[in-house]
Amino acid sequence: AQSVAQPEDQVNVAEGNPLTVKCTYSVSGNPYLFWYVQYPNRGLQFLLKYITGDNLVKGSYGFEAEFNKSQTSFHLKKPSALVSDSALYFCAVRDHAGNMLTFGGGTRLMVKP
Amino acid sequence: DTAVSQTPKYLVTQMGNDKSIKCEQNLGHDTMYWYKQDSKKFLKIMFSYNNKELIINETVPNRFSPKSPDKAHLNLHINSLELGDSAVYFCASSPWDGNNEQFFGPGTRLTVL
Lengths: 113, 113
What we know:
The structure holds two protein chains of two kinds. By secondary structure, chain A is mostly beta strands.
């Protein structure tokens, strides 16, 4: 069975500083990996995905993520955080055989001015 | 133009009642999903339909019955509502190919009293 772990319930960072939101996964075979963001009282919005190719993936709003196969990780990063980045972030994985997306428990990002 | 829409946005009802949540997507996607997000923000797949056929049913009580009249609509009917059904329910859609991201609706907050 596939699974996703987001070890931090909350990440606090000052505006202008770099941010990292961690994600590790477990899946049979090669993974499809996704990051979504959820603002208060809203649905999830897609940020970026890794399917194949370059391990560094760039997405919306200046976010990027690095796929590390040996560490089974897909950490989300941004060089300079904005207060408006404060939200709930979800990592998700899908295997190549199925259509089911498994989400991590979410990490709340708080960016303080 | 709203890509994935859900109605109602809020639903407050008594235990034992039967209620429905409607979902429509105008993206031309083949696959639609229902997710449940609990009070701790944990997100879990409930059902998935591809071209009106059920393909994922994740150990959901049979009080929950999805119905897909056409591939643009996936409704969720819940019988005999229980307190534990209180949650936010999200509809999503995607193309059938598994490497595509899912598009989420705004959510329906269900409160069972």
